[in-house]
Amino acid sequence: MPDTARRLVVIVLFDGVDLLDVTGPPEVFSLAGREAEEAAGYQVLLAAETLGPVTTGAGVRILPDLTFEEAAGRGIDTLVVPGAVEIDDERRVHALVDPGLVAWVKVLAARAHRIASVCVGAHLLAAAGLLDGKRATTHWSTARQLAADHPAVTVDADPIFVREGNVWTGAGISACLDLSLALIADDLGEAVALRVARQLVMYLKRPSGQSQFSVPLEQISTTRRIEDLRHHILRHLDEPLTVVDLAAYAHVSDRHLTRLFKTELGMTPHAYIESVRVEKARHELESTDATLERIAAVCGFGTTDTLVRAFRRRLDTTPTEYRRRFRVPVAR
């Protein structure tokens, strides 16, 4: 297939970039050319400030195909902007934003038909002013940073990707596959994207509204009291677990308990307990054949109606649909 028949995808490279952010999308785009019935596909080029090797955050070195300056002279169909993070002494994650790189992103974006960020690459788009007035997502671990640094951006840490006009933002690193599939569906149709998903042995092509599962459970608290409460909740998940009971267990007042949860985990005790119950229910749906009634009971929901409402509220799907999509076959 001649390059003139291909949509040009330019992926931004820089030292410290997340490796899968860079290598995931090209694999998906390459399969699209094979699965598409029409003579259409993608040409993926990696662009960096110079043609020297770029060392990724994983330590793997990658050679760019062209410089930013050369890319700026091309007709870019899709500009893909990955990200990079650093971990501080307290194990907190921070997205890295280099002003020089932001300037190039702004230049390249002006020459692109479509712009997409992968994971914490959203911070680079925001710094370039490309997300002002828009809804956007990023990896849940840096969502608060994105919202604090860029108040003009409406940050939604839940979806795996968000589309706002010609700007797309993706969530966690593996969500780059879902985002790439969505871009392919936008170009070549759902049927091609689904065929590519099958080639990748993915359970499904997840919709943009699919939640970043496990977000609340990954948040780290800094006090031993809250950590003890978290373990207590896990051990007694099938029990009522009221605020009164938890406060008595922690030897604090109801009001103080709520303040502790909001400060440490960013949510109320009720919201946290529901998130844990949904997480356990997800595990049961993925790995067992237990009935919904049984799962509702062992996870503390009480009734299947309560279980269904919690799934709709937190994951925008039903337990039955979730099991259909994510059930792991049992080896026999």
Can you describe this structure?
With 332 residues, the chain is of the alpha/beta class. The protein has helices at 19-35, 68-71, 99-109, 122-127, 143-149, 175-188, 190-199, 215-218, 224-235, 243-250, 254-265, 269-287, 292-298, 304-315, 319-326, and strands spanning 6-12, 41-48, 54-55, 61-62, 66-67, 76-81, 85-87, 93-95, 112-117, 135-136, 154-155, 161-164, 167-170. The protein has 15 helices and 13 strands. The strands form four sheets. A seven-stranded mixed sheet has the order 5-2-1-6-9-13-12, with helices on both faces. The chain has a two-stranded antiparallel ribbon with strand order 3-4. Helix 6 packs antiparallel against helix 7 and helix 12 (269-287) packs across helix 14 (304-315). The longest helix has 19 residues, at 269-287. The protein is globular and about 65 Å long. The two termini are 44 Å apart.
Note poorly predicted spans.
203-209, 213-218
Average pLDDT reading: 87
Question: Main β-sheet, in a few words?
Answer: 7 strands, mixed
Query: Termini separation (Å)?
Result: 44 Å
What helical percentage do the residues reach? 40-55%
Number of strands: 13
Order of helices and strands: EHEEEEHEEEHEHEHEEEHHHHHHHHHH
For the biggest β-sheet, the strand order reads 5-2-1-6-9-13-12
Radius of gyration: 22 Å
Instruction: Determine the strand fraction and express it as a percent band.
Output: 15-25%
Based on secondary structure, the structural category is: alpha/beta
Tally the helices. Answer: 15
The coarse silhouette is globular
